[in-house]
Amino acid sequence: MMEKLKAALKELAYILLGAAAIFLVFQLTLQNSIVDGTSMEPNLMDADRLLVSKVSYVFSEPQRGDIIVFPSPYEDGREFIKRIIGMPGDSVEIIGGVIYINGEELEEPYIVNHDSRTMAAVTVPEGEYFVRGDNRPVSLDSTQGWTVSRDEIDGKAWFVFWPFNSFGGAPNYEFQITAAGILLLPLIILRRLKGTVH
């Protein structure tokens, strides 16, 4: 009887230690956030609950297209969630709602709600990022004159877990060539040789 009790207690201890380890890893690597507002619609909806990776930028730098979480620049205790548009050193200009990075138009297939805003070219300071919300007409973002420093970034949006109709990976966007892009590479090269750059 005592042997069974010892075995049960030992198993319970292993389970509790495992649960504690999982909890600790979760606390150190992930952050639970709730989207508050409509600035990222329709890609992230008001009240979406998501996991934010706090370790995404430990071994790599933020990239254009990443959705990041950071403290509100207005020092009101809120957290903001926006998409990185301009990288450190980039020239960012907006003409009639169209963003130009270093003179090249930025194609943004994730944008549904465009605006017609115009902003004179600005250079993103070193160590800073120019961010915008996907719902352009209502977003408070870097067009207001502020940028986000590398040190202020709390993490990268990783996974939406609630509600179920939003369930899935966070809608980050990679501007690098994808597998589909590789298939189109000969066409892209040919167009560049002809002098057509978009």
SS element count, helices: 2
Compute the CA-based radius of gyration.
22 Å
Give the total of beta strands.
12
Shape: elongated
Q: What amount of the residues lies in strands?
A: 25-35%
Mean pLDDT: 84
Give the helix proportion (percent range).
10-25%
Instruction: Encode the helix/strand succession as letters.
Output: HEEEEEEEEEEEEH
- As residue ranges, the low-confidence spans are 177-198
Structural class: alpha+beta
The biggest beta sheet is recorded as: 8 strands, antiparallel
End-to-end C-alpha gap: 77 Å
Textual characterization of the structure:
The protein has 198 residues and is an alpha+beta fold. It is 22% helix and 28% strand. The protein is built from 2 helices and 12 strands, in the order H-E-E-E-E-E-E-E-E-E-E-E-E-H. Strands 1, 2, 3, 4, 9, 10, 11 and 12 form an 8-stranded antiparallel β-sheet that branches. Strands 7-6-5-8 form a 4-stranded antiparallel β-sheet, with no helix packed on it. Strand 6 (98-101) and strand 7 form a beta hairpin. The protein is elongated, with a radius of gyration of 22 Å. It starts with a helix and ends in a 5-residue tail after the last helix.
